[in-house]
Amino acid sequence: MIPVVALVGRPNVGKSTLFNRLTGTRDALVADFPGLTRDRKYGQANLAGHDFIVVDTGGIDGTEEGIETKMAEQSLMAIEEADVVLFMVDARAGLTAADEAIASHLRTRQKTTLLVANKTDGIDADAAVGEFYKLGHGDIHQIAAAQNRGVTSLIHYALAPFAEEFEKEHGDAPEEIDEWAEEAEAELPTEETAEEEAERLRNQPIKLAIIGRPNVGKSTLTNRILGEERVVVYDMPGSTRDSIYIPMERDEREYVLIDTAGVRRRKNMIEAVEKFSVIKSLQAIEDANVVLLVVDARTGISDQDLSLLGFALNAGRAIVLAVNKWDGLDTEVKEEVKRELDRRLGFVDFARLHFISALHGTGVGHLFESVQEAYDSATKRSSTAMLTRIMQMAQDDHQPPMVRGRRVKLKYAHAGGYNPPIVVVHGNQVRDLPDSYKRYLMNYYRRALQVMGTPIKVLFQEGA
Ligand code: GDP
Ligand code: GDP
């Protein structure tokens, strides 16, 4: 399960700065769901070989009263859901009462907590951080988020316990973590690793996550699906943030339904349990092969729907969209909803869109045809010969531009992974190709490979 890192600290210590460092240029999901009184930011991050979710909990200073207490509660909930807490303090400002209040709260939680002193640039850091030992959180990790100093090794240290898999594959990280992180980034997947992945994916059940805002009808849909299908066994949730994993069969294919709504069956009763949790949704997306995003026809597409969709896209998941509560709407309203969907969901025109009623069961059966199709597209093997041929066709139709007086030359292409399909294009100066040409190639591959329901990635490797 992808780990969750929460950034905690009083206002102004540098949480947003670190958040932006960790998530790079990727969009943050700003949670503004009903029931949350304050925006928290969630992002996807990859650093030092670790994939993780990072949460900026917003500022708490431990002295809140009234409405502020409510707001702080939301941040405290994020702490409960995290695997690792980075407790940030400001090395320049020195120890404050707010830091102490937060420290004493954190000491009461059973959470792995690292004390991080930020803004250590341009000062005598060792001297400055000395007083923070009083907080009783052990070692102090010195960073300068704004300068990106110490950040990679901090993350490596924090997430090493979650990285056994990774270390098995790549061996131990060398001492120069930062250097190693750069190398890891430069190393693109090979045909062989892609083949192994394809093999693994073909032999496993399809993990299908049902995702959506509160009240869009996820529980109703899950019940509907489970009512119709043969359910093999049930897993009970381990903790509040865990989704329920439900193995099932359909049309002779095996699935594992990742149920974020928390439907569980007790004897013959089906009931919805937990409340909505952003982290739970994001982890389910990361863990799934196919994401079924449910939106509500009656409220229209919200920014949160788009954020969840963006997260699924960034994670490279195959996607099927379900517009629920399609029952009992008059034609005019239906037309209006369709226009809105066209306008706002144009960027995922590769994903199938279904109009359903989870309540009445209308259209629910057909969802699985698209789930199947999306998974098959995402895992369909592509040979080097075919990918190279498509690349040449694209190049013949539209020559790559000149870069520094030389024409960029594409040489060959091979598969670099599946779910999502990754195409690795080799050639001279390919990294310098303008984004417009990279997009052109991606769209060309999409059309030629006829992938429906999955994003694809095209990566570029210099030389042969
Ligand atoms: P937040 O309120 O905890 O999210 O803090 P911000 O990320 O907004 O940072 C507060 C201020 O500290 C901003 O002016 C940042 O530019 C500054 N800052 C953040 N990180 C560093 C750092 O590593 N060094 C220095 N000198 N300033 C920093
Ligand atoms: P969740 O929070 O996403 O799990 O949403 P629920 O499944 O609990 O549904 C929220 C509300 O929407 C409930 O009152 C449902 O009865 C209602 N609902 C769910 N699906 C449909 C549907 O297809 N049509 C209509 N009219 N109402 C629905």
From TrEMBL:
Coiled coil: none annotated. GTP 2 binds at residues 212-219, 259-263, 324-327. GTP 1 binds at residues 9-16, 56-60, 118-121. Keywords: GTP-binding, Nucleotide-binding, Repeat, Ribosome biogenesis. Residues 3-166, 206-379 form the EngA-type G domain. InterPro entries: AAA+_ATPase, G_ENGA, GTP-bd, GTPase_Der, KH_dom-like, KH_dom-like_a/b, P-loop_NTPase, Small_GTP-bd. PANTHER family: GTPASE DER (PTHR43834). Belongs to the TRAFAC class TrmE-Era-EngA-EngB-Septin-like GTPase superfamily. EngA (Der) GTPase family. GTPase that plays an essential role in the late steps of ribosome biogenesis. Associates with the 50S ribosomal subunit. This is GTPase Der. It comes from Ferrimonas pelagia.
